[in-house]
Design goal:
The protein has helices at about 20-25, 40-45, 55-60, 75-85, 100-115, 125-130, 145-155, 165-195, 200-210, 215-225, 235-250, 260-275, 280-295; strands at about 10, 30-35, 50, 65-70, 90-95, 115-120, 125, 135-140, 155-165. It has 13 helices and 9 strands. The termini are far apart. The protein binds nicotinamide-adenine-dinucleotide (NAD). Nicotinamide-adenine-dinucleotide binds near residues 17, 75 and 98.
Length: about 300
């Protein structure tokens, strides 16, 4: 059973990731006071044992620890601004969204002026990892605060300390820059191989036993692309957001990101052309379609 300090957790953002995370927190014995503006999201959270609040402000009024699992830094900042005067001094905000590291540092400073602590704890592992409580949780922040949050976070997966505040968000964006670039180049290689006459499953089998393997060849292609389900639960626009955070970070630190920038530009074109809710694995289908277009030209 959780300690009294952390027994009640606030949770804002009950989307593809938020709901399975709430399910593990409630299963571990935490009382989770949760909010999301979308009725369907609230319904799903209720089904996994959350106590629903009618606003983020109500969550803040009822808890000392508040987890955010929101689409981006802009929304995180707006929710934090809304709840800041309702959180107690000494309260802890844990931003588990994939946010922008420099904005996270600014937000932590603003919260500190109000006596509120913050850490960043973004995750990798997708909906599958959230559902199995096998997320990799990349934590940034003061180590004593991270110690305090660890019993809560460990309920959701493996906690890895990345460094100071913002470090989790920085490494998360860089991880997704790698992941997105792997997926894009895998789509291009698979398209070329198929055009040559290779069987997709044969190619994957060979890549996975060779040095070309990645999460894209081991997981995304066999599970979401080849069966054409495109239902990994991670949106294409969210992936693009992470790539842009990473390329912005490269720029801010004066690092040369030639391939990163090209990959982000290609993902951005796909985002413009595909449905706003498209799953990120649709990039493979889009790449294949580009081949068709270039052949026609
Ligand atoms: P999602 O779009 O499924 O869920 C986001 C939720 O936030 C929605 O239910 C939405 O209604 C809610 N929301 C939006 N504005 C809000 C507001 N002002 N107040 C309260 N709630 C609000 O997104 P997701 O896939 O669950 O991703 C959440 C975060 O986790 C993102 O930052 C994403 O980049 C990151 N992430 C996602 C995955 C994945 O596989 N889906 C994996 C790792 C990290």
């Amino acid at each position: 059973m959780p300690s009294d300090i952390t027994a009640v957790i606030g949770f804002v953002g009950l989307g593809n990731m938020g709901v399975p995370m709430v399910a593990h927190l409630t299963a571990a014995g935490f009382t989770v006071v949760a909010y999301d503006p979308a009725p369907a999201a609230r319904e799903r959270a209720l089904e996994v044992g959350a106590v629903l609040a009618s606003s983020a402000v109500e969550v803040a009024d009822r808890v000392d620890t508040m987890i955010l699992m929101l689409p981006n830094s802009q929304i995180v900042a707006s929710v934090v601004e809304e709840v800041m005067d309702h959180l107690k001094r000494g309260a802890l905000v844990i931003d588990m969204s994939s946010s922008e590291p420099l904005r996270t540092k600014e937000l932590a400073n603003t919260l500190a002026e109000h006596g509120i602590r913050m850490i960043d704890a973004p995750v990798s592992g997708g909906v599958t990892g959230a559902t199995a409580a096998r997320l990799t949780i990349m934590v940034g922040g003061d180590s004593s605060v991270v110690d305090e949050a660890t019993p809560v976070l460990a309920t959701l997966g493996r906690v890895v300390r990345a460094g100071e505040i913002g470090a989790g968000h920085a490494v998360k964006a860089l991880n997704n820059l790698l992941s997105a670039t792997h997926l894009l180049i895998t789509a291009e290689a698979m398209t070329a191989g198929e055009r040559f006459g290779l069987e997709p499953l044969v190619m994957l089998d060979i890549f996975n036993g060779s040095s070309g393997r990645s999460g894209s060849t081991e997981n995304k292609f066999p599970n979401f692309v080849l069966p054409a389900t495109f239902d990994s639960g991670f949106g294409l626009r969210l992936m693009l957001k992470d790539m842009l955070i990473a390329t912005q970070l490269e720029e801010q630190v004066g690092s040369v990101g030639t391939l990163s920038t090209s990959a982000a530009r290609i993902w951005s074109r796909a985002a413009d052309e595909l449905d706003p809710d498209a799953d990120h694995t649709r990039i493979a289908e889009w790449v294949d379609h580009q081949r068709g277009v270039s052949q026609q030209q």
